[in-house]
Write a structure and sequence with these properties.
The complex is a heterodimer of chains A (315) and B (62).
Chain A lengths: L4 H8 L2 H8 L3 H30 L19 H6 L3 H33 L5 H13 L2 H11 L6 H10 L15 H26 L3 H9 L4 H29 L3 H6 L11 H10 L4 H31 L1
Helix pairs in contact in A: 5-9, 5-11, 6-9, 9-11, 11-14, 13-14
Chain B lengths: L1 H8 L3 H20 L4 H21 L5
Helix pairs in contact in B: 1-2, 2-3
Classes of the chains: A mainly alpha (315), B mainly alpha (62).
């Protein structure tokens, strides 16, 4: 008679332990397996969230732990929601978020569509295109500051070559009008490959038989694109937008390295401002309220987006 | 329109989720628009109401 590994493990279990386990219901055993994960989630996610919400109603400062903490009610929220500087920060974030998503989706989908047309060397091109995504945001921020240098930067010379303008006549990261676009360009350069990869997965999941059926029905390439390619790749595209939207809402490292939030406050995104309030001005209660506002916004947007995604998938 | 109102009155998920979605969207637009400070001030309340409503109404029957 042969024994399976499960049988062998069962025979090696001490009798006392085996008797105790046999007495447990399936539900209890399931809880025993799941409880470490639930405990970790509570400790790492839920507890800090509840603690942050509690701190947001106080004037607590983490650099003065011995000070008496007073309950200030909704005062932190009132101050944040009537502060024109934070309002400007929200607008800078909106500008960054909207333009990066639009550009990344358009360019990413186009690249995926081109790569999907199997041609000689497309694997090599995929690797080359994906390269920026593999770099650290700090490295990317650092070398783009050199590329944007008015005197020696390659970017200015490329723009000058196409427009005829003097390369030293404009500074991408020193001009209040150009700096918001400078961070959009760098983020698009870095993260378009990610959108492209997700779109490529979507395009490759479309069976060839559907296109063959469309060919038999004499559907034009244009019609095939709008009635087969786009609807079937849409869930993947929406997933890419969700990931990039959430990531860019909390964008920090790349922009800090590139512009430091300047010139003035033109590229100060909410996460940069939040970090300054929390760890430079040490207003922990105030910054907690700030974090709660951002959390509710992202959570609300993500909820409706996931619902829309599920609807698209069910079609 | 009558179907939507009936759905709201009979506590059906679809119309209530639609209402919550509109509130969240409105709140986010109010938060990030560059025109009126008062809208920015009330944006969080609108988003919060929408988000809490969305969580609750997700458990309503279809």
């Amino acid at each position: 008679m042969t024994y399976s590994p499960i049988d062998r493990a069962a025979t090696k279990t001490p009798q006392g332990v085996a008797r105790r386990i046999r007495g447990l219901s399936d539900r209890t055993i399931a809880w025993i397996f799941v409880s470490p994960t639930i405990f970790l989630l509570l400790a790492v996610n839920i507890f800090p969230l509840i603690w942050t919400i509690r701190l947001s109603f106080t004037d607590y400062r983490v650099n003065r732990p011995n000070n008496e903490v007073s309950w200030v009610g909704l005062q932190n929220y009132q101050r944040i929601l009537s502060d024109p500087d934070i309002w400007n920060t929200m607008q800078a974030t909106a500008h960054f978020l909207i333009w990066t998503i639009i550009l990344q989706v358009l360019i990413g989908f186009t690249l995926a569509y081109l790569i999907n047309m199997k041609f000689k060397g497309n694997d090599l091109w995929t690797t080359i295109i994906v390269f920026p995504m593999m770099l650290s945001p700090a490295v990317v921020g650092n070398f783009w500051t050199f590329l944007y240098q008015p005197q020696i930067g390659l970017f200015n010379y490329v723009v000058a070559f196409f427009t005829g303008a003097d390369p030293a006549s404009f500074s991408m990261i020193g001009d209040v009008n150009l700096a918001p676009w400078a961070i959009v360009i760098v983020d698009t350069w870095m993260w378009t490959p990610f959108v492209m990869l997700i779109c490529l997965a979507g395009l490759r999941s479309i069976p060839d038989s559907i296109y063959e059926a469309a060919e038999c029905d004499r559907a034009s390439k244009w019609r095939q694109f709008w009635t087969i390619t786009v609807p079937m790749a849409l869930p993947f595209l929406m997933l890419a937008v969700l990931f990039r939207g959430i990531e860019n809402f909390k964008m920090f490292d790349l922009v800090v390295q590139l512009t430091g939030g300047g010139p003035g406050n033109t590229t100060t995104l909410t996460s940069i401002d939040l970090k300054r309030e929390a760890f430079e001005r040490w207003r922990t209660g105030y910054s907690s309220a700030y974090a709660v506002i951002l959390f509710v916004t992202v959570f609300g947007l993500a909820s409706i987006y996931v619902k829309a995604l599920n609807k698209v998938k069910q079609r | 329109m009558m179907g939507f109102v009936n759905g709201l009155l009979r506590l059906r998920r679809g119309p209530w989720e639609m209402l919550a979605t509109v509130l969240i969207g409105l709140g986010v637009v109010m938060l990030m628009q560059p025109f009126v400070l008062v809208l920015y001030t009330y944006s969080f309340v609108v988003t919060l109401v929408g988000t809490v409503m969305f969580i609750i109404v997700s458990h309503f029957p279809e």
